[in-house]
Design goal:
It is built from 16 helices and 14 strands. The chain is an alpha/beta fold and 454 residues long.
Length: 454
């Protein structure tokens, strides 16, 4: 493959060594070296000036190239700069590789050479080595999974009520879940309903939900296998279920999973802000599609969107409390308009009050930017482990940029926003709701808004 190189030179006499390393890499891997772009180390976090010359060269040539860099620091001075450069190179059609034999992937290399702000790489390496030694011997790390506790030797020990004087025989609950799933053919929601109706509680004394049951049904730890830090050891602790039963559960999961179907649902305007007035849990947006045959033989399809109590959906508790999405959203919007109109009519809000309201909105935006940064770092780690593509990682960068830009944006007057509501995008409407409605509590026939910042 045709290869080009990009270097940031920290010292004048370093060019020859880097050129030689690039030529050797191409010779060893049967690549054709065609160009080298090198310049002085940049003072900013991003790549140097020669980077633009290199990208222009690629665009004008119309050919495919392999880009070779010594390590991730040549793409940027911090993790975010490296990711931005790497995503941009991918969009340009360049495959990028580092000369580092141990970490040739730029993101993996960046995590090793640059780390994450506030994290000591030396200390992290020592901790990982210590944890690796414990994992190799089968000793448990962190909180033990449901059904086990950490025994005197540091290994996992099965929790059975008759043996350790526990209030609940956790091992029997795990066995029950696998039996209901594999033998009785119950789905996750029916298993959750079965457990909660019989008042079988989680370790923390709460109700079960779909996620917690699913995690137990996919965890190989219950076969006596311990997996951590890339290590996998079998028969290091007592098994609760057999390997055959575990494989049967995984096979049934694959059979039940729809193949080739991608569902693209529109986001819900009030997502994350609606709470059930009966149990206090959040209401989640649900989309249902139904099809039927008409008298003339043609088929019709209907799409129904509504908010449903999450306790009912995920834990099979509470009642079937739902609101049609268009009705709830229009009701909330109507109450917002009435609140703003009442405030203007009474003229009770003075300048200090407006400033306090605007500062509360700005603080919320700053908090949202911090959350976007944490989501971005999590996405980087997932991309480094191969769990996420660069294209998806690029979307996290866009979200990060939008969240940061919003922190400096003006706090628009509520009346102006509501008067131009129909011209706003879905993202703008959702942002306004998030910033101006703290909580929406719904009963079957009433809606109550917390509009402290409106």
């Amino acid at each position: 493959m045709r290869a080009i190189a990009y270097f940031r030179l920290n010292k004048p006499d370093g060019r020859a060594d880097l050129d030689g390393a690039f030529q050797s890499y191409c010779l060893l891997n049967l690549h054709q070296p065609v160009a080298v772009f090198a310049g002085p180390s940049a003072d900013t976090g991003g790549p140097g000036d020669e980077f633009e010359a290199m990208t222009a060269y690629v665009k004008n040539s119309g050919s495919e190239y392999l880009l070779v860099v010594p390590d991730a620091t040549h793409l940027g001075g911090d993790l975010e700069s490296v990711v931005r450069a790497y995503v941009g190179l991918e969009e340009l059609g360049l495959k990028t590789v580092c000369l580092d034999e141990e970490f040739p992937d730029p993101i993996q290399n960046a995590l090793q050479t640059l780390g994450v702000k506030g994290v000591s790489r030396t200390r992290s390496r020592r901790i990982k080595e210590s944890m690796g030694a414990r994992a190799l011997s089968g000793q448990a790390l962190g909180r033990p999974p449901y059904g086990y506790r950490i025994g005197p030797t540091g290994n996992l020990k099965v929790v059975r009520g008759k043996e350790v004087d526990e209030e609940q025989d956790e091992a029997s609950v795990v066995e029950l879940m696998y039996r209901l799933y594999t033998s009785d053919g119950l789905g996750l929601r029916l298993i959750v309903k079965h457990l909660n109706e019989r008042e079988i509680l989680t370790r923390r004394g709460g109700n079960w939900n779909v996620v917690s049951v699913r995690d137990i049904l996919k965890n190989p730890v219950y076969t006596g296998t311990y997996t951590r830090l890339g290590m996998r050891r079998s028969n290091v602790h007592e098994a609760i279920i057999s390997g055959e039963l575990f494989r049967k559960a995984q096979d049934q999961t694959m059979e039940r999973r729809p193949l080739g179907r991608v569902v693209r649902s529109e986001p819900f305007l009030l997502s994350g802000a609606v709470y059930c007035g009966y149990c206090g849990n959040k209401m989640m947006g649900v989309t249902r599609r139904q099809s039927w045959k008409r008298k003339d033989g043609r088929r019709s399809v209907g799409v129904y969107r509504y908010y449903q109590c999450q306790s009912r959906n995920n834990q099979s508790v509470c009642e079937y409390h739902t609101w049609r999405a268009p009705l709830l959203e229009s009701t909330v919007l109507g109450q917002l308009r009435a609140t703003v109109k009442e405030r203007e009519a009474s003229s009770y809000e003075d300048a200090p009050a407006r400033q306090d309201r605007e500062e509360a909105v700005r603080e919320m935006r700053r908090s949202r930017a911090k959350i976007a940064e944490r989501r971005f770092l999590g996405a980087v780690r997932r991309a480094a482990s191969g769990e996420m593509t660069l294209a998806v990682l690029g979307q996290y960068l866009v979200e990060l940029d939008d969240a940061r830009a919003a922190t400096d944006g003006p706090v628009l007057d509520s009346t102006t926003v509501l008067n131009t509501w129909d011209s706003l995008s879905m993202e703008q409407r959702a942002e306004f709701i998030e910033e101006n409605v703290g909580r929406i509590v719904v009963h079957d026939d009433t809606v109550q808004l917390d509009t402290a910042h409106t």
